[in-house]
Design brief:
2 domains; alpha/beta; 233 residues; Rossmann fold; 15% strand; binds zinc ion; globular
């Protein structure tokens, strides 16, 4: 029976090849979404092991972020860039969930998640979310939640104003561009909470800062931040 099963399995994968989302190569039977070579070549930052790290430093003197880290470096040729692209523009939600899970195992075992009782993804503008069909930061958050058991809250923090695509703007423009575009639905829901704010890519930190500023208006709220990738400018 085992032989027959393998034969069927091979036949199915011939018709519907399972390909690595990082490099396009065929996946082995025990591999899921990404091949082992791509998995290993993700340039991890290990920032969660060190409170003084480049992502945490982005917020110094700007707003009180308790802890901050990113899973990987977002270099031009880094594997994570390709994977995040698959998530955001090719609708490959599963990879976002899986990367969230992978990162959560490291965060959990290092104690980074200790004390955190709520996960809040950086919201997309509702129109953009409707167009894409999902919010990539929420998908990543769901993966982190799957491993940690910490609840995801997508209702308290809302994106209210529009923001243009930020890729071609200068740091100063980006800064002014995000101010006042987030709002809080229900201050009571985040009051006294230790929140993990989740983003896909952190560049200047201005989007995260704008979110944190809103969350920190609630009494006794603590905000920590993680992203899948850190893009140095
Ligand atoms: Zn691969």
């Amino acid at each position: 029976m085992g032989y027959l099963y393998d034969l069927c399995d091979d036949f199915i994968s011939l018709l519907f090849p399972r390909l690595c989302l990082g490099c396009g190569d065929h996946l082995l039977r025990n591999e899921k979404l990404i091949c082992t070579r791509c998995y290993i070549s993700i340039p991890r930052t290990n920032f969660h092991l060190k409170s003084d790290n480049p992502v945490a430093r982005l917020f110094w003197g700007r707003c009180h972020i308790e802890k901050a880290a990113a899973f990987s470096f977002y270099n031009r040729d880094s594997r994570i860039r390709k994977l995040i692209h698959q998530l955001k523009y090719k609708g490959e939600r599963e990879i976002g969930f899986e990367l969230g899970r992978i990162y959560a195992f490291s965060l959990k075992s290092s104690g980074f998640l200790d004390g955190i009782d709520l996960i809040i993804p950086v919201p997309l503008h509702p129109l953009k979310e409707r167009k894409r069909g999902f919010n990539q930061s929420e998908i990543i958050s769901r993966g982190i939640s799957d491993v940690s058991g910490i609840r995801v809250d997508v209702n308290s923090l809302k994106r209210t104003g529009a923001s243009d695509t930020q890729t071609r703007k200068s740091r100063y423009d980006r800064w002014t561009n995000v101010e006042g575009i987030f709002g809080m639905e229900d201050r009571g829901a985040v009051q006294g909470r230790h929140i993990l704010l989740v983003d896909d890519v952190i560049t200047t930190g201005s989007t995260v800062e704008a979110c944190a500023e809103v969350l920190l208006r609630a009494e006794n709220t603590v905000v920590c931040v993680v992203a899948l990738a850190f893009a140095q400018v």
